Amino acid sequence: MPLVSLREVTKAYPSRSRGGYAVTAVDRVSLDIEAGDVYGIIGYSGAGKSTLVRLVNALEPVTSGSILVDGVEVTGLGERELRRLRLGIGMIFQQFNLFTSRTVWKNVAYPLRVAGLGRAETAARVDELLAFVGLSDKAQAYPEQLSGGQKQRVGIARALATRPRILLADEATSALDPETTHEVLALLKRVNEEFGVTIIVITHEMDVIQTLATKVAVMDAGRVVEHGEVFEVFSRPRQASSQRFVSTVVRGVPSAAEIAVLRERHPGRLVTFSFREGEADAGAQGRLFAGLSAAGLEFELVYGGINDIRGRVFGHLTLAVRGADAAIDGALGALPAGVEVTEAHRG
Amino acid sequence: MDDLIRLLPQLGQATVETLYIVGLSLLFGGIGGLLVGLGLYTTRPGSIYSNRPVFAVLNVVVNVFRPIPFIIFLAAAQPLARAVTGTGIGNTAIIFTLSLAATFGISRVVEQNLLTVQPGVIEAARSMGASRLRIVLTLVIPEALGPLTLGYTFVLIAIVDMSAVAGYVGGGGLGTFAIQFGYRQFNPVVTWAAVIVIVVIVQAVQFIGNGLARKALRR
């Protein structure tokens, strides 16, 4: 059974002015998140990602649909049951949301006091958590004395205090510089691997997905338009909106605008060859180029990139191919196995 | 000058009375204002105890009573003071009315300062399963403590100001002293002596308030 299961979940906000249309932030979303997953939710801002995760710990009540967390129906829970549910779901935020009036130590202790732990147990747990995130020496510092990365590490320690099975990360690295982002992602990876915490990460950053996520859902205008293994979704996005999003983070098949620019500079037919590990073997590229040469074609690599997602490689190479049309068509018809071809419309 | 020396015991007495009136008014008005301010803050739309009717009522009540000039309020609320404290005149009556007026004034100061607390901080506490009451008491108030301290300092000085009209209903204090022994007896030296004492009190209050706020804000 999935740890978190969403069925036809909708969240609509009433309009502020009477008679206006309601805003549907999340629109009939169904998703299953298995225990141990690191589930990425990606999409442009305003796609409904933040609202979606806030439905999981019921910070926002759903309008319709069903959410099961660890077998418990979340919708319709009373205030008291909700508080118990939330003890089992940690959350970290883009702006960290640390308590500025409390020291690092007391920030981490807060959820433990909420959970009703005694003084001695709280102290032991806080020390353990601060050691885990590497901030034992900052226990008595106040949040404003910390760097962004340190603040987020406090946020992570605080979110993990009550040993939740699920961690929600709302753009947790978006306010951090690239180096600090890597530090925090490495920490989150340890959280997942060492403690088996299921993580749901909202992000618009490729880095986060690449290094952390095992599965991914693409959201657009409140809907999940595509979901699955990260490698599958990123190497072969099927929906137009996920293609658009993926193309902003990986160099894949060139967009119409990019093709126009390429065409200006490079005569010939623009053909994109896609390779995915597991489908095309290591010799495929060599055989492809050899085939093109053997057909007497002239070609030039004009666009593309190779991407590594959790150790699996895929790439898209766009070539400008020049020669007789029949020869090109012949060569494209005899490609090595596993290589996919997309040809730009000839303008 | 000789008059002033002769009046020194009365000046001392008036200073003590002012401190007594102001101190008790700040205590009662401070608690009342904190409660009403918390009410305004927590019931406003989108807040943790969001309740439109309660918020609307509180809002109207505060808006109606807060702008009344204190000297008029003192006269208007005299029957109420009499009903509650048993007397409509003297220091007891003025402490009652001043506390009431301060409640309305302070409630807005409290509300505005609580609104400076970042909503994300409250969301973080909710995500930990903290109850709403716990969030208000252990999070919202401590997070706003610095600005709240400055707000209360500001209000305390306003109370010193308002307390000067105590003589109007037979109360004592520095205002009464200045009018009775200074103004009415054409003795500016005595009037200015009262002024100086008030300036010293206000400066002391401001100094302490700033110090406490700095401590709360750690700057």
UniProtKB/TrEMBL annotation, chain A:
Residues 4-246 form the ABC transporter domain. InterPro entries: AAA+_ATPase, ABC_transporter-like_ATP-bd, ABC_transporter-like_CS, ACT-like_dom_sf, MetN_ABC, MetN_ABC_transporter-like, NIL_domain, P-loop_NTPase. The keyword tRNA processing does not apply. It comes from the Bacteria. Keywords: Amino-acid transport, ATP-binding, Cell membrane, Membrane, Nucleotide-binding, Translocase, Transport. This is Methionine ABC transporter ATP-binding protein. The keyword Kinase does not apply. One of its GO terms (molecular function) is ATP binding. CDD domains: ABC_MetN_methionine_transporter.
UniProtKB/TrEMBL annotation, chain B:
It is a multi-pass membrane protein. This is ABC transporter permease. Belongs to the binding-protein-dependent transport system permease family. The chain crosses the membrane at residues 20-42, 54-77, 89-110, 136-169, 189-213. It is found in: Cell membrane. Keywords: Cell membrane, Membrane, Transmembrane, Transmembrane helix, Transport. Residues 15-209 form the ABC transmembrane type-1 domain. InterPro entries: AA_ABC_Transporter_Permease, MetI-like, MetI-like_sf. It comes from Herbiconiux moechotypicola. Its main location: membrane. It holds the Pfam family BPD_transp_1.
